[in-house]
């Protein structure tokens, strides 16, 4: 070994081997000895600490250290440790701020519904809030939400609502979650008028109720025998969600099977109201008389309910929404296009409003043409034109195509005859130089309320128009997608029905229930009818005196359906609603 810097004795090695051995030992000595010297000479504060020598990071500021430890308690959901920290902070006269109080209030409100910790959470929660107010620290939305939850847990909805209303004194806007404690407290205690007052305040603040709040109000109205209120909340639910949770489904079953639901009466002009609303609902009140029949079942791919045989609608936006949509598209187009050109198109469309389908010519002509010999496919466009002509009962669609593209086609001898044929049949509208075709075919589709053949997802327009949910609803009803497989055209028409809560002109209701599967045929629906209003009289005739709930799919097998004359009722191939008021 190396001792006191001296080299060890080298064994008897002769020749060049001895030379190499000496060199190697010298190198080892240099590394070990010099490293030791450097280590001894280097100050300790320059050393790189190993993980075992690292000191735990601490906050020198007591306020910051208190907040750090409080946040740790919040993450670990340790209420008792947080309270202990709070008591210590008071003993040490630690200066507290809004963040400290909000963290403590949040933890207390979290445990306010825990049976084992409720008393402790309530006692300290209100103590912390009183301390906060005594220090003249203004609460924010999070503070008020927490104290409202504590108040509701104590059964004091009035104080919870009073706290929400005081937010205005601090120029702070409440959120929906801020109102929830008072609303749910009033609903649970069946204090209907107070709950409706909270709802009115939510509406004044420009906030929208979601499924949990709507269902709470619906159940409250059902439990207090307010049938008209139940009807209105059912429509609010229809506007807010596409399908309901299992919990909501149970609330609806209970309502339709109670005596309070026997309040129906006939309403005139129901069909006109449904058409005006875009299909799927009329909003004119309960229709029919007698007990309700409540079943759970499936809906066939063609939109036919397997329980009652009714055909569900493919729901569109209503007349008011359609008009607003058309005005918005026109307004945006006039900002981006040459005004004279687009107004000329608007005038032309007013005089030629019989089209039932609009075709995005460029989208179809350039489909799958990104190869060396690719170009504008006239044959693809012609195939779509002819297919839509056949499907709409021999009515030509309107093709929107840029004039530069049309001029190039006319100059090609092999295409000229076909293009001239389109023009003779009134198929083409050529957009002028410098224009964007998109505004023309989008406006025409909305204004004429007809189908649109395109694979364009229209993402560029969504954010400029009336909102994604509104736009998606419209697209689902009007867009026709297409593919060409080995030259053969295949159209994907709008769905036969919409997966939304629907109210029929007979007074029945169909409510889709949340489904984990992507296969729509597996989705369960709540089918709610009155005796005599259902197509299949035999299934409901025995339930005149008592409400029937049949759980599980009520669809027959395919063989049984064929024997029972299960008609394939599909929606119209066109998107136009001629019966609508202008």
Automatic annotation (TrEMBL):
Residues 300-527 form the PRORP domain. Its cofactor is Mg(2+). It catalyses: Endonucleolytic cleavage of RNA, removing 5'-extranucleotides from tRNA precursor. InterPro entries: PROP1-like_PPR_dom, PRORP_C, TPR-like_helical_dom_sf. One of its GO terms (biological process) is tRNA 5'-leader removal. One of its GO terms (molecular function) is metal ion binding. Residues 558-570 have a biased composition (Basic and acidic residues). Residues 54-261 form the PROP1-like PPR domain. Gene3D superfamilies: 3.40.50.11980, Tetratricopeptide repeat domain. Its EC number is 3.1.26.5. Keywords: Hydrolase, Magnesium, Manganese, Metal-binding, Nuclease, Repeat, tRNA processing, Zinc. Residues 42-61, 556-582 are annotated as: Disordered. The keyword NADP does not apply. It is an enzyme of class 3 (hydrolase). PANTHER family: PROTEINACEOUS RNASE P 2 (PTHR13547:SF13), PTHR13547. Belongs to the PPR family. P subfamily. This is ribonuclease P. It comes from Gossypium darwinii.
